[in-house]
Design a protein that fits this description.
By secondary structure, this protein is α+β, with helices and mostly antiparallel strands. The chain has a single domain, classed as protein yfey like fold, CATH 2.60.460. Helix content is 21%, strand content 36%. The chain is built from three helices and ten strands, in the order H-E-E-H-E-E-E-E-H-E-E-E-E. The strands form two sheets. An eight-stranded antiparallel beta sheet has the order 3-4-5-6-10-9-8-7, with helices on both faces. It has a two-stranded antiparallel ribbon with strand order 1-2. Strand 7 and strand 8 form a beta hairpin. The chain is globular, with a radius of gyration of 15 Å.
């Protein structure tokens, strides 16, 4: 369990580095309300009647639907003016980026096997299970299967052929 927690922390650190070293490529693909259109890669929160969460949603609306998180963390953003925020719920985390007086979802990270993608993939399944559901990935290494659509990358982090983390990030 300590290894998984350490891996999740390392993954969060890597995501924060990514946001500090790249420009926000999604600004051009956002609609007026900041939401991204067209990506088939979304996360459904089963405990909230399959409420759909996707990148670039306004976090205020998501908080209204999901309620208070188990924990909350914020830090000064190194890529934007304002605070980057992390909301932790049972089985997943939502990381946001500031844009004026609003916060938009920048990434979603599944943290344990209590939640799944809409296609039924969860932490602990094999690489073969992922490719059976999603097909050939856009990018593949020994430790990563990455699928992209509509500005969203759905990444499956692998260790010894088993999924140890699932993340929705900007493509």
């Amino acid at each position: 369990m300590k290894k998984i927690a350490l891996m999740v922390l390392c993954l969060l650190f890597a995501v924060s580095l990514f946001s500090c070293t790249t420009e926000d490529a999604n600004n051009n693909s956002q609609s007026e309300n900041g939401t991204q259109s067209g990506s088939k890669y979304v996360f459904n929160v089963a405990s909230k009647n399959n409420y759909t969460v996707k990148l670039d949603m306004n976090m205020k609306e998501v908080l209204e639907a999901l309620g208070e998180p188990l924990s909350y963390f914020e830090a000064a953003s190194c890529a934007f003016d304002g605070l980057d925020k992390t909301y932790t719920y049972a089985g997943f985390q939502i990381l946001t980026r500031p844009d004026g007086d609003k916060d938009y979802i920048n990434s979603i990270i599944l943290t344990d096997d209590s939640v799944t993608t809409p296609e039924g993939v969860y932490i602990g399944v094999t690489e073969a299970d992922v490719t059976a559901k999603y097909g050939t990935p856009a990018q593949k290494t020994d430790t990563l299967l990455s699928y992209t659509d509509g500005g969203t990358a759905l990444n499956f982090i692998l260790k010894n052929g088993t999924v140890i983390s699932i993340e929705y990030i900007p493509a």
